[in-house]
Amino acid sequence: MALQHARPGEAIDIRPLGARLREVATHALLKTHALEVIRVVLAAGEAQPRHRVAGELTLLCIEGQVQVEAGALSCRLDAGHLLLLPALAEHSVRALADASLLLTLQLPPGAPGSASSTV
Amino acid sequence: MALQHARPGEAIDIRPLGARLREVATHALLKTHALEVIRVVLAAGEAQPRHRVAGELTLLCIEGQVQVEAGALSCRLDAGHLLLLPALAEHSVRALADASLLLTLQLPPGAPGSASSTV
């Protein structure tokens, strides 16, 4: 999917994908020097394997249900639930049902570029 | 309202407040050295007057409808719409209907503490 980053002042529709979910891949919504926002799309049973990113992040479950594992933490997120993960925390995300999530990444000054290739 | 900041690994319920909206005030959901997340609650007709914050921010309309003005920009946000505003952009938010929003603030290194007193 071609990435069309939104610009400041441009509203982005992040409503649930519903029946279209399986036609949509994970994609970046916007990226600046300080923030990156990505819609993560996972079909039931799919997972993002264990990885970590340089900055802090929040994960907001837009639809569906996922299980997040990070170190000793194991947390289920349903639609409308938000989770903070600290910088450099190794974590994995597994979809218990078709799910999409809003991933907001804080990009520390001087950190290497996009984290979207790792999520 | 007492502020109970969530800790990393603790899921936060940010589903629409619905009928409870007018009983809930704007409140911080979490704050670290790099990110602050606030639920902004505005009854129809209420507004956050023009202000600015040090970092970049995203505004996600959880429910209701707001009008955001920032410089020459005027943007209406409905539920499920996300908007990025650059650092130091003077902006105001006015509720066109009872609304709650997820405000995610990036806190630049060395910036003065909480921005929640200004939003």
Describe the structure.
The structure is a homodimer of 119-residue chains. Chain A is mostly beta strands. Chain A has strands spanning 12-13, 27-31, 35-42, 47-51, 57-70, 73-78, 81-85, 91-106. Chain A is globular and about 35 Å long. The two termini of chain A are 15 Å apart. Chain A binds chain B through residues 6-16, 29-30, 32, 34-35, 37, 55-56, 58, 60, 70, 73, 75-77, 79-87, 89, 102, 104, 106, 108-109, and chain B through 6-16, 29-30, 32, 34-35, 37, 55-56, 58, 60, 70, 73, 75-77, 79-87, 89, 102, 104, 106, 108-109.
Give a concise summary.
The structure is a homodimer of 119-residue chains. The first copy, chain A, has 119 residues and is mainly beta. The first copy, chain A, has no helices and 8 strands.
List keywords for this structure.
mainly beta; 119 residues; globular
What's the layout of helices and strands?
The structure is a homodimer of 119-residue chains.
Chain A: E1 12-13, E2 27-31, E3 35-42, E4 47-51, E5 57-70, E6 73-78, E7 81-85, E8 91-106
Antiparallel strand pairs in A: 2-3, 3-8, 4-8, 5-6, 5-7, 5-8
